[in-house]
User: Which sequence fits this backbone?
């Protein structure tokens, strides 16, 4: 398989996988705090405080996913990073993760892609 396809798939799996892990960690934390009803959990997750806390996590996850996706690629790293960012944003917008997405954080996804490709180009 082409190294660009491998990097794209690997970066996408890391980015989306860590996003799912973060979401499940929040849900399990809320359940341990005594939230029993699913409506209560959804209200807390969709609040402004959850949005502010999810932005740095989204940024770090996207930086990590893009960096891991482009670090072993010799050429076209910007193309691979753009594909990872676009597919991540698409999965949050209209894919199966739309049900799970806390907030549509496009700015941290784009910034994470830019910073991740910068870090990947330096290594």
Assistant:
């Amino acid at each position: 398989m082409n190294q660009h396809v491998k990097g794209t798939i690997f970066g996408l799996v890391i980015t989306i996988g860590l996003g799912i892990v973060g979401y499940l960690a929040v849900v399990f934390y809320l359940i341990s705090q005594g939230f029993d009803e699913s409506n209560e959990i959804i209200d807390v997750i969709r609040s402004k405080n959850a949005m502010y806390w999810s932005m740095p996590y989204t940024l770090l996850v996207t930086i990590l996913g893009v960096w891991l996706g482009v670090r072993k690629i010799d050429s076209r790293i910007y193309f691979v990073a753009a594909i990872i960012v676009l597919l991540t944003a698409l999965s949050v917008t209209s894919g199966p993760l739309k049900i799970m997405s806390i907030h549509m954080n496009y700015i941290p996804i784009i910034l994470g892609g830019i910073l991740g490709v910068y870090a990947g180009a330096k290594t």
